[in-house]
Write a structure and sequence with these properties.
This protein is α/β, with parallel strands linked by helices and 171 residues long. The chain has two domains: 41 residues, no CATH class; 124 residues, Roll (2,3-Dihydroxybiphenyl 1,2-Dioxygenase, domain 1). The protein contains four helices and eight strands. It has a four-stranded mixed β-sheet with strand order 1-4-3-2, with helices on one face. Strands 5-8-7-6 form a four-stranded mixed β-sheet, covered by helices on one side. A hairpin with a 5-residue loop joins strand 7 and strand 8. It is globular, with a radius of gyration of 18 Å.
């Protein structure tokens, strides 16, 4: 018997597969009525955090992003690097919030962020080491056989973030 997923779960799964480059699909593949792709990429990503202030400080101070909005009544802060937007939402009860486990929780496994150069990746790594409140899962290393170099960290609220540099391929 095949497992059935809700429409929302299906859209989320397709979105992540598209983002990861695992599949290439069009609207026709999904809804069966057109061959034209109807989307243009992610608008923003929303992450729930246990400590909004610490996560905002991490994003703005260590990554150099800037705040561009938010809501006081549903505590959140919108941040951007000029290319993508992330909304950081404060968990309503941080004491009861469950820590993320990438192997058992359904949802975002990690957010991968591109960096401009290997030097930029090394600078970020040193900032994370110096910050003291960032868990480094692994330092810069080749992803598979390369040429992509990446590292994985957890920001102060525990969200997994990957930073990756894709050097130009040599012909």
């Amino acid at each position: 018997m095949s497992k059935r997923y809700s429409p929302v779960t299906t859209v989320v799964l397709i979105s992540f597969l598209l983002l990861a480059g695992c599949v290439s699909t069009t609207a026709e593949d999904v809804v069966g009525n057109t061959s034209e792709t109807l989307t243009t990429g992610f608008n923003h990503v929303g992450l729930t955090v246990s400590d909004l202030e610490a996560s905002v400080e991490f994003i703005t101070e260590l990554l150099g992003w800037r705040k561009v909005g938010g809501y006081a009544d549903y505590p959140s802060v919108f941040v951007t690097d000029g290319n993508m937007f992330v909304t950081l939402w404060q968990a309503t009860d941080s004491e009861k919030a469950m820590a993320f486990n990438r192997k058992t929780n359904v949802g975002l496994h990690h957010l991968a962020i591109s960096v401009a150069s290997r030097d930029a990746l090394d600078v970020l790594h040193q900032r994370f080491v110096d910050a003291g409140n960032v868990t480094i899962e692994f330092a810069s290393e080749p992803n598979g056989g390369g040429p992509t170099i990446h590292m994985m960290i957890r920001e102060p609220s525990g969200n997994r973030l990957e930073f990756a540099h894709n050097p130009p391929r040599k012909n």
